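Inputs:
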Amino acid sequence: MVTWKEETVNVAGTDLALIRGGTGKPLLVLHDELGYTGWMKWNEALAQDRELIIPLQPGFGKTPRLEWTWRHRDIANVYQNMIREMDLGQIDVLGFSAGGYIAAEMAASNPEQLSSLILVGPMGIKPDEGEIFDMFACTIKTCLRQTVFNKEAKEYSEIYGGDMSAEQFELFEDARAESARLGWEPYMFNPSLPELLRSAKNAKLPTLLIRGSEDAVVPQDCIRKYHDALPQADIITIKGAGHRPEIEDSAEFVAAVKHFLA
Amino acid sequence: MQIAHFTERPVRYLAEEPVLANRAFFGVSNKFFDREKSAHDYNFYLDEACFVEEVGFDGIALNEHHGNPFCSGSVVNIEAAILARITSKAKIIIIGNMLPGVKHPLRTAEELATIDTISRGRLVAGWVRGAGSEQFFNNANPAYNREMFNEAHSFIMDCWTKDGPWRYEGKHFHYRHVNPWVKPYQEMPQQWIPGVLSAETVMWCAEKQYPYLGLGTALGPTCDLWDMYADKSAELGYQAGPENFGYLLPIFCADTDEKAQEIGKGFIFGGGQNAFSRPEHTLPPGYNSKSAIRMLGQQPGGSWLGVSKEKMMASADDSWDASAYDALKAKLIAGYEKVQDDMQIVVGSPETCAQKIKDILSVIRPGVFTCFAVQGNVSDKDRLRSVELLGKEVLPEVRKFADENELFGPFDRTPGSVKLAPGTKRAPVVDRAALAKLNLT
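Outputs:
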């Protein structure tokens, strides 16, 4: 059993809350637009030979909101300075959904800082076909149901089943409010990102794109457009999973990530 | 006291089923829009406003909403501009301009100044953040709602008072050449702020000395908020009085109680005010302050415009069973009686209406009273008869009561003009004993 801990570090001009667990080469993990959902099986599996560093995004309840940030690109800058100030060196990054959007912005602005990039159901690029699901125009429950295809997945019910406490409710609302602040318009994408990623293409940054085959949040076309921008990327489709392949089919997900990072 | 008339200008040709099936007014498809019937309605509501002035109301209040048939007024300044020309005495009270949704405060400043100038100083401006659903319709970022509201308001005040040209580079708005030719006809139009129990808005009003208008809010919580306003006023060195408070109440008057009861059911058409928008559209992310969200999370039974944590947590993917219409309508009828018991809707003959209004005024002691006309598919004739009865029979009674009880309106006594020395105990602004008599504590 890997031990993990929550700590606060003063970096990038703020008191950033972090989850750290495991040993080995650091792997920066960026959670999605609804916030960190706890240490799951996939965290445990990846932490066997990597140190997972999971910043809790500013404004999501634990780390204070940074008033100067306007866009996901600005959060990318916070994490880039975190990497520098914590002397993490060149680092692998794994980003989920809007966390993938942030990771892509990091890759676009300074690909040399990263050793590889893994994007899971990434937002950030406007699809030509389909739309990124509007998570702001529905209740939290509807939003959560939209994220998974396999609603019987054990970890899904562990995270979201039962009654929601007042604290969880507030954390969700914090996350939704901050995601709205950064991503309301344009809705969860940066029109310039496909062109900005040219730097990561030129740097031949090793990239893996992962998407659940039944993802109802991020359309397949987002993956196609990421691949157009980053033709060096490998693509893995996890069959029968929705937008949360890491909890819907954690074995498949972990295998794909480990194989890529090996 | 200033007495105004208000209507949402409801779409009157729509069947109830599309609203019930949508579980809200917001989002009912505009495929139901009818050109001819709408042309009639838009013209009728302007004529009705002229009649409101003719029968003795002091003001015509109007608002705007978007993307729904609850309120057909979508561009309030256009209607207000027409009224500026076709009426001659009544105040034109806009409750209000939705600053974060319009997102163009320079244009708003010009429009309002034009209305004030054409009407030769009859504009009462009002500012709103916009209902939650309006943020979706206007794609206005709800997380910046209050910031944009504050910045736009401050910018408009500068537009109305500073000589141009000047340069403005704010956070949300940028104008490098500000020089609106038209300025308000009045040195500074009064500003009345409508609200539905937002503590932040109440405090903001107290700081600005703006009258706060409770929009049909329950009497108990209204008393609490007005006390909060008055406490803040005392801190700031003035005694709040009736001139700082207004109240808007749904009222329908007919020749007999029976007839009024029947037609007044228009207030619950489609679910009425509580069905304005679904929970997910009522509280978009970041729209409410963190403290308001915390309160919502900690009070399972607590609600805000009928929204609770439970409703926010509900999944909206349940399918609608058309056979449930009858049951739903029966539930609405039961609610109709309850809101009357709670004095949140007044329906009746002139005698009934006058008495109930006086009962309410005795509790919350506002200086502005606004009659909110019936919703639903009510005929021109019945609507106009209500206006006539209110103007000719109810208003004189209400005015007499207001005079006897010194319910000064903001045009009788300037809000903030009664100074209070530091450390002085403020006078009460509500009468809780009168509330207790109504069994509504």
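Remarks. Chain B touches chain A at residues 136, 139, 141-144, 279-281, 284-286, 290, 293-294, 296-298, 309, 311-317 (CB under 8 Å). The longest strand of chain B covers residues 245-253.
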